[in-house]
Please model this.
Amino acid sequence: MADGGNGLTGSRVLLTLASLVVVVAGLQAAAVFLKPFLVSAFLAVLSLPLLAAFRRWRLPTWASVLLTMSAVVLVVAGLAALVGGSVTGFIDAAPRYSARLETLARGAESWLSRHGVDVRQWMSIDAVNPGVLFDFIGGSITAVASALSNVVMVLLTMAFILLEAAGFPEKLAAALGHEAADFGRLRRITGEVQRYLAIKTLTSLATAVLITLWLLVLGVDFPLLWGLTAFVMNFIPTLGSILAAVPAILLAAVQHGPANALLVMLGYVAVNMVIGNIVEPQLMGRRLGLSPLVVFLSLVFWGWVWGPVGMLLSVPLTMIVKIMLEHTDDLRWIAILLDASPPARSRG
Model:
C-alpha cells in the first residue's frame, strides 16, 4: 500500500529516530568546537541591531564591526571589573562560610533531637554535609572564571561572523539559486532568535538589578555576584531562577540567620514571579511557539548534549530546529508536535 503523502509510517519514524541518534552523537563529538562557536553566533545575532545602526551611518563594514565589537568588549570588561573582586572574595571566604553552615546544620540537628525528631534515622549530617554546598559553589565560580579564558576566541569568532553577515544573503542566493525561500527562512530564524535573546536579556537584566538591590538592603555579602548569577541563570528555563537563589539564601542564613534567609527567598520568589510570569510573557507573546513541556525537555536534552552551555541556549536552539522542521515537508509533523498549540483545522 502506498504511503499516503505526508502520513507517518513506521519506517519513516524509525529512520527519523536513527538519524537523530547519529546527529546527537556528532553534536557531542564536536562539542569542544561547537559550543564556543554557538556562543559567538548567538552573541553576533544579539549584536546585529547595533551593527545595522552603525551601517545606517554609512560607515564601512569593517568600521561598523569594529565599533560593535568595541561596545561588546566594553560591556564584558565592565562586568568583569564589577564582579571580579566579588568572585575573588567569595572564593577566599568559602571555607569560612562552609564551616559556619556546618555548625548551623549540626545545631539544627541537635534542636530537632531535643524535640523528639531523630534525623539520624533517615539522614546523616555527615553524609549530607551542607558545608560542601559552599565548596561546590566556590568550585563552580572558579570553573566559570577559568572558562573565561575562551572569551578571546569567542569574541574573535563573533567578529568574523559579523564581518560575514553583511554579504551572507547574497552568497546564499548565489549558492542555492532560489533566494526567496531560503533567505526567508534564514531571515525568520535570525529574527525570532534575535527577538527572544533581546527580550530575555532585558528581563534578565531587570531580574539582576532587582535581586542586587534587595540583597544590598538585606546586607548579604557579594550582592553584585549574586545579581550576575541571577542574570546568567535566568537564561536557563524553569530551573535557572531556582538554582540562582540557592547560594544567596544559604549565605544569608550563614550571615544573619533563618529570618534573613527567608526574606531573601521571598525576594527571589517575588522578582521571578513578576518578571517570569507577568512581564516576560507579555513581551514574548505567542512568538516563542514552544509548549512548556517542550521547553523543559529541550533544557534536559541540550543540557545532556552540551552541559551548561546547552542549558543556556536550549530555547533558541530548539526554536531554530522547529523553524527548520516547519520548512521541511517530510519532517513538518515533528514541528507540529513541538508547537505550543495544534494547527487550526481547515473547514469544509
